Amino acid sequence: MMKALVYISLLFLTILNLTVSAQEQQLAVPYTLADRDRAILTEAKIGALEAKINALEAKMEFKFESQQRQLDDIKTLFFWGFGILITLFLFMLGYMIWDRRTAMKPALEQAAKADENSRTLLTLLREYSKKHPDLAEILRTHGML
After folding, report:
1. Contact at 8 Å (CB) between 145 and 126?
2. What's the pTM value of the predicted model, to 2 decimals?
3. Are 125 and 117 in contact (CB under 8 A)?
4. Which residues does 13 contact at the CB level (< 8 Å), separation at least 6?
5. What is the pLDDT of residues 55-81, one digit of tens each?
6. Which residues contact 139 (CB under 8 A, 6 or more apart)?
7. What burial letters (b/e) apply to 5-40, b meaning 16+ CB within 10 Å?
């Protein structure tokens, strides 16, 4: 079965090759001087078009490079701008923290002083309640004795 398939394939390819060769022989046309002149003229036109295309490519390359430089400049400007803004934000945050601490310092000192005064007052009331039982009862009711 396999041999038959190989033989059929070879026969098909041989017939196809013969058909193509016959078509190529029928299409053979003599080459004239007019054809040669047209080929030379076509080559000259193609050369001129290549020169124009090369000039346009060079021009586009120059424009692309200049735009790339402009984009790089804009990117650098953005980096500097954002860097400056972030630095300012961090400075302002640090300043606010410092300002709050310095503003809270006197209030904390006053609260500590008031706490000390409260302790002193409580101590005095406890001492006084030793001689006055009605005050001792009030302090016991509120859990201060």
Report:
1. yes
2. 0.41
3. no
4. none
5. 999 999 999 999 999 999 999 999 999
6. 125, 126, 129, 145
7. eeeeeeeeeeeeeeeeeeeeeeeeeeeeeeeeeeee
